[in-house]
Design the sequence.
């Protein structure tokens, strides 16, 4: 598996391209991602959104039109793709597949699993491909996603942090912002973040 990444837009949101068996998945195409993605892909099969915030989905519609491929988005965040809840003037898009559970699936022959960790947004998810976690705005290196935005939930974030703390396997983390990490490394920080969320 080959992973390409490029930070996009004012918030330096990481857009990822996962290449496996001659096919590509595009993860979180944010502001200005289209040109870079179009230069990299040869056989794209889908666009995957970790969640619905504008800086992760800004180029959804443009890439879908150019490439003719479906958009997968967690069900809880579908409304964000068209409603632009943070008022940023985001181009609206529409998901073709609403991801409703954590069951493994195959997209273009590539095994993919959405793991649901709400809190930052209602549908906030980690996209698992092999031993890689594309963690969106749930987990970062030395940090976690904010829980004080519109449609965020401190209580849901608290439960998600407890849930991720119980996972025994290790994964390489490719977050929505900043450098890569590992799940085991970030699990050492989870007790601190649990206490921060409890203080809300």
Sequence:
């Amino acid at each position: 598996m080959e992973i390409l990444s490029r930070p996009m837009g004012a918030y330096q949101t990481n857009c990822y391209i996962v290449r496996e068996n001659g096919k590509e998945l595009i993860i979180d195409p944010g502001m200005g991602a289209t040109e870079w993605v179009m230069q990299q892909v040869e056989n794209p099969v889908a666009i995957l959104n970790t969640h619905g915030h504008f800086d992760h989905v800004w180029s959804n519609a443009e890439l879908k039109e150019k490439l003719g491929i479906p958009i997968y988005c967690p069900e809880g965040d579908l409304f964000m793709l068209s409603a632009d809840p943070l008022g940023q003037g985001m181009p609206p898009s529409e998901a073709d597949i609403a991801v409703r559970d954590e069951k493994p699936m195959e997209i273009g022959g590539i095994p993919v699993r959405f793991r649901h960790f709400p809190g930052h947004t209602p549908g906030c998810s980690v996209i698992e491909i092999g031993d890689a976690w594309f963690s969106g705005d749930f987990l970062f290196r030395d940090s976690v996603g904010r829980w004080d935005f519109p449609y965020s939930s401190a209580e849901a974030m608290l439960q998600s942090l407890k849930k991720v703390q119980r996972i025994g396997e290790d994964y390489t983390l490719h977050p929505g912002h900043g450098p890569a990490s590992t799940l085991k490394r970030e699990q050492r920080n989870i007790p601190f973040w649990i206490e921060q969320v409890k203080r809300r």
